[in-house]
Design brief:
Blueprint lengths: L1 H8 L24 H13 L5 H5 L3 H11 L2 E3 L5 H8 L5 E5 L6 E9 L4 E9 L2 E8 L5 E5 L1 H6 L2
Antiparallel strand pairs: 1-6, 2-3, 2-6, 3-4, 4-5
Helix pairs in contact: 1-2
């Protein structure tokens, strides 16, 4: 998990396009790229350990749905979120939260879990750049977590 979070954090401040129009994370495509960022980081750290179908998608919905199908998705509970977070969320896991784009979902990579249930995450396509964001579980906009260790054990 630490290598995933470190690789994600190494991109903080980077954008998905440059003056020449190259798209670093979205493989040349002009699209929302939070899932592209997550997939690229997972691919660069342990490509052989993750199901190829999950790394190939640009859709946070498809990524989440495949994690559910594989039994690697943990839904955030309605109560006791802070204690749940400390037991169930790990550095390198993927946060699935409310988004504003077409899919309505956003994904990011967990960098830290605080004792109050706040998740510090590295996110692609946050105002078109890679940024570190804080997500408070008590606000209710974090829906679940993809357990990357469990996911990696299936490949």
């Amino acid at each position: 998990g630490n290598s995933i979070a470190q690789k994600a954090a190494s991109y903080v401040g980077r954008v998905n396009s440059d003056a020449e129009g190259n798209r670093l994370f979205s493989h040349g495509q002009n699209r929302a790229w939070c899932q592209d960022f997550v997939s690229r980081v997972l691919e660069m750290t342990n490509a052989d350990k993750f199901p190829k179908k999950m790394l190939a998608t640009a859709s946070p919905i498809a990524f989440r749905d495949e994690a559910i199908r594989l039994g690697c998705y943990n839904k955030v509970p309605a109560s006791n979120r802070a204690s749940w977070a400390s037991e169930n969320i790990h550095v390198g896991d993927v946060v699935v939260k409310k988004g504003s784009g077409q899919s309505g979902l956003h994904v990011a990579i967990v960098k830290e879990v605080k004792s109050d249930g706040t998740i510090v995450a590295v996110s692609g396509n946050s105002s078109n750049s890679v940024r570190i964001s804080n997500y408070n579980l008590n606000k209710g906009d974090v829906y679940g977590i993809v357990d990357v260790n469990k996911l990696a054990s299936l490949a």
